[in-house]
Structures are given as C-alpha cells and as structure tokens.
Amino acid sequence: MKILVVGSGGREHALCWAFKQSEKTEKIFCANGNAGIAEIAECVNIKPDEIAELADFAETSQIDLTFVGGETSLALGIVDEFEKRGLKIIGASRQAAQLESSKSFAKDFMAKHNIPTAKYKTANSAEEAKEILQRGLFGDENAPVVVKADGLAAGKGVVVAQNRAEAIEAVSGLENLVGKKATEKIVLEEYLTGKEVSLLMFADGKNFALMPPARDHKRIGENDTGANTGGMGVITDTNLLNDEQQNEIIKKIIKPTLNGTKQEGFPFCGILFLGLMMTATGAKVLEYNVRFGDPETQAILVRLETDLIEICQAMLNQKLDNTIIKWKKGSSVCVVLASRGYPYKVAIGDSINGLNDVAAHKQVVVFHAGTARNEIDEFITASGRVLGVTTAAPNLNGAINRAYNAVSQISFNGMQFRRDIGN
Ligand code: AMP
Ligand code: GLY
C-alpha cells in the first residue's frame, strides 16, 4: 500500500516509522515531513492546511491510505474532502474536530452529555470575561482560575492563573498571545487539582480501542516549573491508571462522549485523546484532542505490536471490535530535546552530534521533530522541539535509564531537556 502521512513533527515521524514496520507498506509519503522523516519516507512539499492540494496529490499518486497527524488539517475538513473524493483517510471529520478546535463547543458538549469536567463559563469578549471574574464566579479574589482561548492556539491558549488579578491580566494578554480569531470567545474554568493522564483511543464510529495511558510533561522546567510547552516528554505505563479508574473513565467519559457524537450527528472516527485530571472526586476531562498527541505518539507507538495498517483497515471497516491490538508489556519513555530559547523565540541551525552513536542501540528510536540538513548534509536544528529520544522497556525505570543514556550521547548548541521525565 501507498501511505500518506500529513504533518511534519515527531508525531508524524513516529507514524511513518510505525507504517514502515508493516509488510503491507510499499511506500510512505509525508507532507511535508522533516529531515528525519526523509530517511524513511518521501517528503512532499504540501503544507497541512493545503487541503485541496493534499487531496489532489493523494488522487494522482494513488495513495491507498492517508493518516492525518495534526488538528489544523482536521479542523479545515481534510477528512470530509478526502471522503467526498472516495479517498481512504484516518482522522476526525470537520464537525467532530470542533471538540478540539473550539473549547466552548467541547464544554457545551460535555455539559449536555453529563461528562465530568471543570465548571465553566464562556465569555464572548475580553470585557465580558473580566466582568465574570469580578463577579467572583470561581471563588474569591485569591482562588485560582483557568483562562482558555476558545480556538486552536498550538498549546499556548491556556493560562492557569493563581488568583483573580492574574486571571484578569491573562484575559487582557490572551489576544496578543494567540491572535484575534482564537479569542473571539474565552472560556473561564474552575481550577482542578490532581494528577494528569492522557488516554488515547482508536475509534471507528461504532467501537473504540484504548491505547496505554500516558503522561505528558508540559512545563519547560524540571519539577513542572516554568512555561507551558507542546510537551517535553512522555511516559506510558499501565500503573498510570488502575482497572477501577479505567472502568470508571469508560463508563462516565468515553461511552457518553462517543454516544454523544452519534446523537449529535458526527459519530467519532479517528483518534480521540482525552486530557484527564484525576481529581479526588474522580476523573474529569480537561480537554479533548481529536488526534494523536505529540510526543504521546512517540512513546505509544514504540509499544505497538499490531500492524498499524491492520488497525487502520479495521477502523475504516468499523471492525475494531474484531481486532486484537497488542502492546509491548511494560513502559516507555520519550525525552524531548529542544532548542535554545524554546518555548519562546528559538535559535535554529545548530549541528546535531551523536545521532549515529544512538542509532547503534536497536532499542532506542530517535524521532525527529524539527530537523533539517545543512549544506554538508549534517542534521541541524530547525524548530523548537528537535528530537524525541524514545524507548520501551519491561519497567519504567529501565525505560528511563535507557532513554537518558541515549540522551547523553546527543548534543547540540543550547540543547534543553528535562532530566525528570517519568520521575
Ligand atoms: P488544555 O490544553 O486545556 O489541556 O490545558 C493545558 C494544561 O493546562 C493542562 O494540561 C493542565 O495542566 C492545565 N489545565 C487546563 N485546564 C485546567 C483546569 N481546569 N484546572 C487545572 N489545570 C488545568
Ligand atoms: N502533548 C500534548 C498534545 O499533543 O496536545
């Protein structure tokens, strides 16, 4: 089969890598890819928001299966366009993608279908948001509040404010931070405490199949300090959720969500990603994503034993219930190596050393997120998140040790990473 992966980050490298393991794969294309992806796929210079061009390419290149990495293409309706043209594609429809592309849509959906989530109020302007905060809807002036831009904001649209004054300041700064379009509405939320878990699943409109639970490490600094990022590292480990918790999540969150999408006329097909807070009163949804996470995907796919193409075919035929999906037992870790300056203005163009040394370890995979080649063909840094050093092992400590051993062999000017992923 000819496969097309849409996107250019570490997540898409991991997807291409997983497709490459399949005997059914004849050739992989990636739009638009990166220098690491180019080692295993042919990179095509079409951007994820160029939907008609992507569909034209899939038609003329006779692509058998397209897999969409990121939310931008999904929110623009790539799946609807491909399906209209009879092209096979895995991803959420434009309507279903609103669960991620509009936080107020997602919150109203959860309220309507009784899905546990933080209390909220949607404001239609920054002024209204400030009024709501002044009225003290989320406790007194010392209570923390979460301020969220309604629209897609590449992970920058959420501010956890420690008190009312900070929340008002966050509301004022939000438009500058993420733009006018994403802040046409602002969602204010009750602050929840607990441990966060990411739970992803394959869904085919009728059935779902869970992936191993994961934990992202979103802050730039060790011990969860400093700015929020797209994710500085992820672990997967069965112990992140016990059976009781998982059953509760299936009953109170997953089934009502999937049934809700059916009732609303957009039965969910694709990858559904629940960002959960495990609070003292049970799991609550922080957010829905309608795609694989980055770097969750890297850590999840190194544990996948079943052929990814088979899973995709089962999804397209609504036969996930007849498919046994096998995962390597144990745990996995992905440690992100980021450029100088990330998550703010980043320095790029630095040569990366040590990749060949790490390539000698068969059990470690280095997924490229933002790399390019320079004029003498060396890998260089090309964006904020550069590499994801990823490995699976029978237990978490083993995975952590192996990942950090590999990390110690890689270097580039200004390389940043967290030393506490999984701790
Ligand atoms: P989101 O993109 O909505 O998942 O938010 C990004 C991050 O902000 C989450 O991973 C949490 O760490 C934090 N966050 C979001 N909503 C809340 C909330 N209601 N209470 C506490 N923390 C939150
Ligand atoms: N790592 C978080 C995300 O992909 O949304």
Structure description:
The chain has 4 domains: 2-93, Rossmann fold (3-Layer(aba) Sandwich); 119-190, Dna Ligase, domain 1 (2-Layer Sandwich), CATH 3.30.1490; 195-322, D-amino Acid Aminotransferase, Chain A, domain 1 (2-Layer Sandwich); 331-407, Glycinamide Ribonucleotide Synthetase, Chain A, domain 4 (Alpha-Beta Complex). Helices cover 30% and strands 27% of the residues. It contains 13 helices and 22 strands. It has helices at residues 10-20, 51-60, 71-75, 78-84, 94-101, 103-112, 126-134, 164-178, 243-263, 296-301, 308-316, 355-359, 396-407; strands spanning 2-7, 27-32, 42-44, 65-68, 89-90, 120-123, 145-149, 158-161, 186-190, 195-204, 208-210, 214-216, 219-221, 225-228, 233-237, 269-279, 282-289, 331-338, 364-368, 371-373, 379-381, 385-393. Helix 5 (94-101) crosses helix 6 (103-112) and helix 7 (126-134) runs antiparallel to helix 8 (164-178). The model has no long low-confidence stretch (mean pLDDT 96). The structure holds adenosine monophosphate and glycine. Glycine is lined by residues 216, 230-231, 289, 293-294, 296.
Layout: helices, strands, pairs:
Elements lengths: L1 E6 L2 H11 L6 E6 L9 E3 L6 H10 L4 E4 L2 H5 L2 H7 L4 E2 L3 H8 L1 H10 L7 E4 L2 H9 L10 E5 L8 E4 L2 H15 L7 E5 L4 E10 L3 E3 L3 E3 L2 E3 L3 E4 L4 E5 L5 H21 L5 E11 L2 E8 L6 H6 L6 H9 L14 E8 L16 H5 L4 E5 L2 E3 L5 E3 L3 E9 L2 H12 L16
Parallel strand pairs: 1-2, 1-4, 2-3, 4-5
Antiparallel strand pairs: 6-9, 7-8, 7-9, 10-11, 10-16, 12-15, 13-14, 15-18, 16-17, 18-22, 19-22, 20-21
